[in-house]
Specification:
2 copies of one chain form a homodimer.
Chain A lengths: L6 H4 L2 H21 L5 H13 L2 E2 H8 L3 H13 L3 E6 L2 E9 L1 H22 L4 H13 L10
Antiparallel strand pairs in A: 1-3, 2-3
Chain A binds a DNA duplex through helix 2, helix 5 and strand 3.
DNA sequence: CTAATCTCAGTATCACTGACATTG
DNA sequence: CCAATGTCAGTGGTACTGAGATTA
């Protein structure tokens, strides 16, 4: 079998993480495609639903999205009536974004789809090892670190 | 602190995997940037060095790259003299690719850079838990599955 | 003047699709 | 005719950069 993965790649942490992410990304894209949505949309709607309205800069920090990508995705959500955007009366630079009722029910739909992607992603792991894995995976993110700069 | 990660994202396996991959990708890009190389180049050189010359289709299967991406990356490597490409005399459809001496020493350079990216990636994990984590991460890839189709 | 916010245009890496010509 | 290979052009999702306009 000459088409095997090179051992040097197989054991490489960055390789393993990236291959896991490829698979995860495929599952998420597939799950959201039926609703014509993308990961960005889901992240933003979750943040708005769970933590309430916010300006776009705040949203970017909550969802690890770049400000420029927030601008685009919020625009797409707004055109579909899933969020509303209005200037902050107290600070004209900001635009506060809030989720609409349509957005909330749309999010419910996405939640169902996303949830089954989680099951699919973890399927290869024995159930009793999933929590251990997620625990360690969660610790892989370094501390946000004091200044943030 | 209004800019916290929503709990629904924080615990989501697909989110955690994708954020780990973002970090991993940043480290790899940074590590390779000094040599003006990308992940595709590293993967291909490793496969050629470790498993010997192969045609491009084979290379794609070895490195989880699409044929079309192999064509582009091999072309870039060839223009830098890091690999050689010649028609297979036994099968005119195939082009056998082999790594050159320059390619081998270039790969040595990349290996050093990539290696430090691994350390950096795993740094947040206590040393005695890294092996456990990698073990579980490796099992996340589902069995390649009989027919491959 | 400095800094933050929003927006826009563009880039980079990577994964993927569809089509075509060549060859088996 | 069918299948595999290499190639090319193009798309999609995500992360990121740089710059301009507005406002604090």
């Amino acid at each position: 079998m000459p088409d095997e993965l090179p051992a040097r790649l197989r054991g490489l942490p960055t390789w393993m993480v990236s291959q896991a992410a490829v698979r995860s990304h495929r599952l998420v894209v597939h799950a959201l495609s039926g609703s014509d949505a993308r990961g960005h949309h889901y992240r933003l709607l979750v943040a708005l639903h769970e933590q309430g309205s916010a300006d776009q800069s705040q949203l970017g920090r909550r969802t690890a999205l770049d400000r420029s990508d927030v601008a685009v995705a919020v625009d797409e959500l707004e055109r579909r009536g899933l969020v509303r955007r209005r200037r902050d009366p107290d600070d004209g630079r900001r635009k506060r974004v809030e989720i609409t009722d349509a957005g909330i029910s749309f999010l419910t739909e996405l939640d169902t789809a996303i949830s089954s992607a989680q099951d699919e992603l973890l399927r290869p792991l024995p159930a009793d090892q999933r929590q251990v894995f997620l625990e360690l995976l969660g610790r892989l993110q370094p501390d946000p670190g004091g200044t943030g700069d």
